[in-house]
Structure prediction request, 512 residues.
Amino acid sequence: MEAEVLSKNEELLKRALYRERQARFKAEDILEKKTKELYVVVEHLKKQITDRIEAEKVIKRNQAQMIQSEKMAGLGQLAAGVAHEINNPVGFVTSNLQTLKKYSLSIKKMISEYDSLVSSVQSKDIEKSVSFLTELAKTKEKEDIAYILDDLDNLVKESIDGTNRVKEIVKGLKSFARLDEAEMKEADINEGIESTLKIVWNEIKYKCEVIKKLSPLPMIVCFPGQLNQVFMNLIVNAAQAIQEKGTLTIESFVEKEDIVIRFTDTGSGIKPENLEKLFNPFFTTKAVGKGTGLGLSVSYGIIKKHKGDIFVESQVGVGTTFTIKLPMKGAAL
Amino acid sequence: MKGVIFSIFNEMIEEKFGLELWDRMIEETKPVSKGIYTSAQSYHESELFSYVGLLSKETGISVEDLVRTFGHFTLIKLSKLYPDFLVKDFKEFLKTIDSVIHAEVKKIYPDAGLPSFTYEDPAPNQLVMIYKSPRKLCHLAEGLIAGAAEHYQTKHKLSQTKCMHLNDPHCRFELTIGE
Prediction:
């Protein structure tokens, strides 16, 4: 009887154990399946992340290319202006040099006759001396030496001025074209504004009277070339906004912790609905082919990179003011 | 219905009535699962209802009372398996069932068919729980609430003012907590 109970209990336990074992197998099976599923999901996620990183790289590359092309467009615009600026003085200096070459022939002739006179005087040949003297007076008359002497100073002064102008332009270009300097360095914002003005002068001089109100500024650590690019954008935009004649006022001053640079034009102004789109890439109201629509968005990027701010206020028919604020401290990236 | 409920049911039967009865229940009700349950899988709730039906016949205890007892037993078991979900007090715990506990269950078992609870909180010592489930297991919910009250050693009075078994759209538990 007892043995029967024991055997029955054993049977029960065996069955219970069997069920438990089956449940465990099933659980392990599920675990394995879930692990595989998880692996697939993780792999999928990894791939998504890699794809995303790749896509971001492409976007960054494209952005860099766009910024580069905007820079190139800006440089192209510049090159045309600068070519004109240089061509003009080079033209009149060349013409002056040609005149000077002619003058030098006349002067050489005079001196050669003078030399002949001197040697005849030294040899005490009165007759010859008188003849040379007459010749000399005739040549002086014929070559218009009086005029040459008078003009000489002008030509030289003009030529020196011309070459100085070329020198100034080249100096401005050099300072402006710090565009690709990769490192931040200390720079004077006012100097940047001045050199930029020199570069774009040809483009704006017929339309804009430029009023400069530049207060002395402390040096700040920045990418000077990039800031100059921003200034050029704003100055050229201002000139383009002016229909016939107007003024562009450029101010710079220190306000609290910031350097403030303000460009105010008396141009046509910006419509309110366009104001908020102004810094968007590719937004332009200029005719096709006239603007890339990148200038202000690139400018915005540059100012943000300097931890600064750029604002715009505008009234249609009155004009536009762009204000840039650059922190004196903390511009370092 | 999730396997963990069946495993706990199995444990309750073994603990309260012995292995022999559990073995017989499987033998007689012939569940598709053959009485082999893992918490990661779902099984048809009819298996549980068959067990309870048989148990009621065997013991003479009503199905409702058995389900209630099972709810009570289940909560005590679950509180040992998942102690982190037992927040500071009884009322707070009841309020987390829908938003925290069921949300966690969904994370592990996205296919779990869970009841829904909505709440009314008319006074600090009162709570109204509105239960909706196609399985109509309000007695189980009642047992679970009783189990929770025991865990928190909190006295409560529960009156069910609406019941899906009486063709109401939902079951309504009105609780008064404390003495």
About this structure: The domain at 178-333 of chain A is CATH 3.30.565.10 (Heat Shock Protein 90).
